[in-house]
Amino acid sequence: MKGKRMFSPEEAIGVVAAQSLSEPATQMTMRTYHFAGTAGIQVTLGLPRIIEIFDARKELATPTMEIHLDKDHQTVEKAKKVAENIKEVKLKDLVTADMLDMTNLEVICKLDAKLLKELELDIEKIKKAVKLKKVKVDGTGNELRVASMGVDVKNLHKLKYKLLELHMKGIKGVTQAIVNKDNGEWIINTLGSSLKKVQKIEGVDPYKTTCNSIFEILEVLGVEAARNSIINQSKYTLDEQGLHVDVRYIMLLADLMTFSGTIKAIGRYGIAGEKDSVLARAAFEETKKHLISAAIRNDEDDLSGIVENIMVNQVIPAGTGSFDLYGDIPKVPMKPAAKEKAEPIKAEKPKVEKKTEKKAEWKPKAEKKIEKKETKKPAPKKTAKKK
Q1: What's the longest Cα–Cα distance across the chain?
Q2: Which of 121, 247, 264, 318 can pair with 270 through a Cys bridge, CB separation 3.0 to 4.6 Å?
Q3: DSSP character string of 329-381
Q4: What confidence tens digit (pLDDT) does each residue in 212-246 have?
Q5: CA separation for the pair 268, 189 (Å, rounded)
Q6: How far apart are CA 239 and CA 243, in angstroms?
Q7: What helix, strand, coil percent values describe the chain, rounded to 5?
Q8: Domains in the chain, ordered, with CATH?
Q9: CA separation, residue 282 to residues 143, 279, 302, 311, 313 (Å)
Q10: What is the Cα–Cα distance from 258 to 227, expressed in whole angstroms?
């Protein structure tokens, strides 16, 4: 019914949505911005972020999480405690000084006792965390000694680098965790993401916690949550740049990316590269590759889409060109009265008689002279009257 339909029949909504999203994207900047309300965390926004979303990239430039806490941890002290459990701690963060013993082929590390106490770590836990091949681990108090089983001095420098980069505590990849207050609620913003692991930490509310990695959301929460994430993050990125795009265009694109149950990119290795039409694929990217492979496989193109019909100069299957009209219209004989009415009556013009001069018939000259003589009558004689 009129007023309830979502769009007009056979309207090219895909083309309209593509134009409505692409045109504002040309006005976007290439810069990165600080995360709202935090210091030290920078996240990718603008055009690079839009490209990350629509290209469905797994490796993000700045993966982040917004961690919400439950009611029992809504204080600054408890929030900071949760943040300490989330942030990754490497051995280099605990070391105040390191030395190389060339004689015994050992790496000696002096540890920060105060920091060990704050993070609830001790030398025994650190010794268990050192899982390297061909090494001997020893240590007492605040000193850690790791001896190489090899005899090459060059390996000692490599051992030192591997040792300092060892993971001790927290979630791998989360390099920063900052506590903020937003709308009266304490939250934790992180640089680095691992949605699956963060939900297991005590104090974290798993129903509100989210991240900017669409594939992590797909793995943990499912495809519907991933679709909502595409919509929300695209809308936020565009609004942050001051660009208004109707959310229904973004929803259409998110549906297209996730309708198969997984996330597909908008590009040659995703939706555009999986079109049935050979000409449509060739028109996008890698023209030579698609035409050669189609020729080898003997593919046929039924010209059912818009792009391929434009290429061959035919009417596109959209709008009025989306259907053919066939009809068998019977001829109905017209009635006499209707026929008279149908024929317009022409007004008769009055006839004007033209004067025409009659031409004398041609006769020979001799006959004409005789006729003249015959036609002359003698004039009557005058008689004098007698008185």
Answers
A1: 202
A2: 264
A3: PPPPPPPHHHHHHHSPPPPPPPP-PPP-PPPPPP--HHHHHHHHHHHPPPPPP
A4: 999 999 999 999 999 999 999 999 999 888 888 99
A5: 34
A6: 5
A7: 40, 15, 45
A8: 11-63+212-274 (1.10.1790), 89-169 (3.30.1360.140), 281-311 (no CATH)
A9: 64, 5, 15, 11, 16
A10: 6
Residues with Cβ within 8 Å of residue 65, at least 6 apart in sequence: 174, 188, 189, 190, 192, 193, 194, 195, 198, 209, 210, 211, 212
Number of H helices, E strands in the chain: 16, 12
pLDDT tens-digit readout, 242-278: 888 999 999 999 999 999 999 999 888 888 878 888 8
d(CA 53, CA 62): 13
Q: Using an 8 Å Cβ cutoff, are 132 and 144 in contact?
A: no
Instruction: Kindly report the backbone phi and psi dihedral angles of residue 305, in degrees, each rounded to the nearest multiple of 5, phi listed first.
Output: -105, -175
Write the CB contacts of 129 (distance below 8 Å, at least 6 apart in sequence).
Answer: 91, 166, 167, 168
CB atoms within 10 A of CB 385: 5
Residue pair 242/24 in contact by the 8 Å Cβ criterion: no
Element (H, E) at 96: strand 95-101
Reading the block at residue 330, the tokens are: 């019977």
Structure tokens at 43: 């996240």
- Taking the C-alpha atoms of 190, 196, 197 and 202 in order, what is their torsion angle to the nearest 10 degrees? 90
Q: Could you tell me the CA-to-CA distances from 317 to 6, 304, 381 in Å, in that order? A: 19, 7, 114
The pTM (predicted TM-score) of the whole model is 0.72
Residue 333 token pair: 């004989």
Can you tell me the distance from the alpha carbon of 17 to that of 97, in angstroms, rounded to the nearest whole number?
59
Gyration radius from the chain CA atoms: 48
Phi-psi region of 10 (alpha: psi -120 to 50; beta: other; left: phi over 0): left
Residues in the chain: 387
